[in-house]
Amino acid sequence: MNWRKCFDPSYTIIEIDLEPGEELYAEPGAFIMGSGNYEVELTLSSSKEEGLFTSILNAAQRKIAGGESAFFVRYRAIDRTTLFLGPGDSEPGDIIYVPVQSGIIVKSGKYVAHYGDIQTSIALVYAGYFQVSGDVTWLNLIGNGGAWISGKGGLLRIDLAPGQTVYVDEEHIVGFSQDIRYDIKLFSDIYGKDKGVIDFVKKAAKALATTHFSREGVIFRFTGPGSVIIQTR
Predict the structure, then answer these.
(1) Minimal CA–CA distance to 116: which of 94, 101, 106?
(2) Residue 55 lies in domain
(3) Torsion region of 109: left, alpha or beta (phi above 0 gives left; psi -120 to 50 gives alpha)
(4) Using CA atoms, how far apart are residues 71 and 56, in angstroms rounded to an integer?
(5) Does a cis peptide bond (omega within 30 degrees of 0) precede residue 28?
(6) Does the N-terminal peptide bond of residue 99 adopt cis geometry, omega within 30 degrees of 0?
(7) What's the predicted TM-score (pTM) here?
(8) Of 136, 137, 139, which Cα lies nearest the Cα of 106?
(9) Is the separation of the CB atoms in 78 and 19 below 8 Å?
């Protein structure tokens, strides 16, 4: 399998060459065009380890909780095949390839395609946190293979060394490695040292004002080792 980007970085699509017998899975709506002799099939899962019940459950979670399609489109090359794929949304931007061996969590709507034996499930990124914006559920990919994900504007992968920290606005996060440590706070940091009710109300009011006028809201603090992928828009 070989692949390359076309029309990057603002209107990126990917061109993927498949040898006979190779398979690729993509989000419905990602297909642009293809050449060669290949099979197309709707499937609930790309993992050979998932049973039927698990596949149905994960598909329902992707559709109901995550806002993703319940199905993947499987492309299997019979002869040498070339496929052109792009993001399903209309926002201009770039596409980045990410190895999935250690697992990656992808924001809802950013997944384009993947290959390999990969299990997909819903990741509750905000579980236990006070949420003021953003998607509640994200897509979790884990297994052996690789994935292509999209973003608005340019895409940047940040690799953090152990103990290294970076702060990223939620709107600019596309995905992050499953093993990275993170916590979530408001931009104005309403949770100060003083936990009194009056102090909390004052800081909450300040948080709402800061969010409204600065357009800043939820901030992720990531601590390495691990990787974060951000979009510039």
Answers:
(1) 101
(2) 2-231
(3) left
(4) 10
(5) no
(6) no
(7) 0.78
(8) 139
(9) no
Contacts for 222 with CB less than 8 Å, ≥ 6 apart: 160, 165, 166, 167, 168, 176, 180, 181, 182, 228
Q: What string of pLDDT tens digits covers the 233 residues of the chain?
A: 999 999 988 899 999 999 999 999 999 889 999 999 999 998 876 555 554 444 454 444 444 444 455 578 999 999 999 999 999 766 789 999 999 988 999 998 899 999 998 988 888 776 555 454 455 678 899 999 999 999 999 999 999 999 999 999 999 999 999 999 999 887 655 444 445 555 544 545 554 544 444 445 789 999 999 999 999 98
Query: What is the DSSP annotation of the chain?
Result: -EEEEESTTTB-EEEEEE-TT-EEEE-TT-EEEEESSEEEEEES-S-SS--HHHHHHHHHHHHHTS-S-S-EEEEEESSSEEEEE--SSS--EEEEEEE-TT-EEE-TT-EEEEEEEEEEEEE-TTTTS--SSS-S-EEEEEEEEEEEEEEEB-EEEEEEPTT-EEEEEGGGEEEEETT-EEEEEETT----S---HHHHHHHHHHHHHHHHHH---EEEEEESSEEEEEE--
**CATH code: domain of residue 151:** 3.60.160.10
Number of domains into which the chain is organized? 1
The pLDDT, as a whole number, for residue 124 is 74
